Amino acid sequence: MPIQLTKVAYTTSASARGGRSGHVRSADGLVDFDLAQPGTTPEPAVNPQTLFAAGFAARRSRRMSRSGPARTVGSAWPSTSK
Fold first, then answer.
1. How far is CA 22 from the centre of its chain?
2. Is the pLDDT score of 8 beyond 80?
3. Which has the least CB within 10 A, 1, 14, 41, 70?
């Protein structure tokens, strides 16, 4: 059964040109980066994988905050035993 969309919470758009070594820009201008493939420039550069990871982490963080205690990568879940 399809879900009916009743309220639009937020809309945005972004454009990209030049692929993984190009440029990305969001409609509001907050994201406006030249891209570089990982390891191809001597200076740190924004790469598509970094942008994806940041978006995924933000989404995952929100989901985790609703479902249990916060934890960082590599940490163990808090112990409930004494």
1. 18
2. yes
3. 1
At 82 the pLDDT is 46
SS3 56: helix
What's at 67, amino acid-wise?
S
Question: In Å, how far are 13, 24, 73 from 80, measured between CA atoms?
Answer: 44, 45, 19
Query: Could you tell me what percentage of the chain is helix, strand and coil, using 3-state DSSP and rounding each to the nearest 5?
Result: 30, 15, 55
Whether pLDDT at 43 is above 60: yes
Cα separation, 31 vs 24, in Å, equals 7
pTM of this structure: 0.57
